[in-house]
Amino acid sequence: MNDDQVVSVRGLVKAYGNRRVVDGLDLDVAAGEIVGLIGANGAGKTTTVECIQGLRRPDAGRLRVFGLDPLADAGRLRGLVGSQLQSSGLPDRLRVAEAVQLFSGRDGQDLLEQFGLAERRRAPFASLSGGERQRLFLVLAVVNRPRLVILDELTQGLDPAARRGVWAAIDELRGAGTTVLLVTHELDEAEELCDRVVAMRAGRVLDSGTPAELVDRYGRSATITFTMPGGLLPEALAGLPNVDSVRVQAGKATVTGHRAAIAEVGALLVQAGPVPADLSVRVPRLEDALVDLLEAAAGAGDGEPRARRPEQELMGATR
Amino acid sequence: MSTTVGRLVRTELKLMVREPMTLVFVFAFPVVTMLIIGGAFGTTPNAAFDGVNPSHWYVASYLTVVIAATGLIMVPVHLASYRERGVLRRFAAAGFPRWSFALAEAVTGLVAIAVGSAVLLAVAAPVYGLPPVHHLAQVAAGFILGSVAFVAIGVVLGTMLPSARSAQAVGLLLFFPSFLLGAGGPPPHVMGSALRAVAGYLPLTRVTDAVRGPWLGTGMATASLMIVAALAVAAALLAARRSALRAAR
Fold this sequence. Notes:
The structure holds 2 protein chains of 2 kinds. Chain A is α/β, with parallel strands linked by helices. Chain A is about 30% helix and about 25% strand. Chain A has a 6-stranded mixed beta sheet with strand order 5-6-7-3-8-9, with helices on both faces. In chain A, helix 6 (about 160-175) links the parallel strand 6 (about 150) and strand 7 (about 180-185). In chain A, helix 8 (about 210-220) packs across helix 11. The model of chain A is unreliable at about 300-319 (pLDDT under 50). Chain B is an all-alpha fold. Helix content of chain B is about 75%, strand content about 0%. Chain B starts with a helix and ends in a 7-residue tail after the last helix. In chain B, about 50% of the residues are buried. The interface of A and B includes residues 79, 82, 91, 98 and 103 of A.
């Protein structure tokens, strides 16, 4: 295995009852990368990261985190991995500063300030807002300076401002060289934060690449709209190398094509005289590119609803 | 203590005293009911009370009410609420040692019993007086083994019940019959044979026998002590297994 390989998963299989939630999954995360694991609900993302964290026992497959087995070497991996878990809370009456102390043995004042929680040091967990809770979970995930941080649906249920705050915090992790594995079903989040995105469906990897690569591969074309200038003919637009279609309706043109068409149409418009005041361009984002793919996949699969994960059975309550 | 285990124990102790359910049932309920019942039958030695002062009989009995409140209400409600919120998952993911939580629960439960008992005796002393202890070693053995057994039963209950609310309901349902038949209710001699038979099967009755008999000098209750010891070992093993932080299947 490569030295800078942080996570390596080969042929991971995990079933709940006879439902295979993860089905032969391969995944690699290199040191310093921010990798987004994306997919619709039920794609198997959370189960995958639970196996990587040693919280679930895989049915088959080989997992290595820093070259170690998450189950057998749990003790040695402690301290190397920090995590934020989905649907996992803290005791209601535990205060912010006490939580940091419990999980790290230090007061973590610097982190509380960095994440805007210094004022809330003495607040009990139950009194925190959704955004404050998520920021606290983030503090707990990074307080022991782990080399790998696993974040599962970190910004779920947050308002846009709180989301931005959490995103900024993750960006700071990138600056510090921390490897981040981010689980999300929100594609704008993946596009904003991730160096590389791994798209999952029905427990398998569908495709992976940088957000730009995936947009290029799956994105519908760019769309350019403007009021047709007098001297410009639709045929001239249609003749441009990267333009796919031209439609003119009531003097308004809608041109679609590869991104490069934006520049070609722009050049033509400049030649034709004053640039139309209503010129607008819509470029596909990751969301546009992948939403159909991921959703269709989730629905299609074999028509099964989202896998029910036996939440209550996890930890301390198993037979 | 700055090991993870030490920090967890300290945190759990802090959270314990912030929990109203604990304060009410472990620290207040036994004291209040002891003051009422302990004064109801006077202080003249009475055959129904094995020939001892009824107030003293109840002071000795109520020590085990603290044990029952801790094991049947405090511990299961606390643990079930942790499971309900996924707190244990977070502990496990943060790499807390496998047995750290089991140990923290044991310490917290035993400390709650110790403090609750001290409060009870401190209130009883000036009001009814503390009866002299006839066989200290035997009383201590019954009290400690009974405490271990009930804290462990509480942990097992907490890992079986799906939510804090259900733990509260089941806990109260187990607590009150145990309290009335096995410790703080009417003396066995005035119960009908059916009730007495039921009481005989309650673990709390055995703990109370093992503490009260040697304390008041009305009998060594060695058989009860053996039963309590066996229960303590079995429940503790099961509790440790069920509260270990480990990967799910």
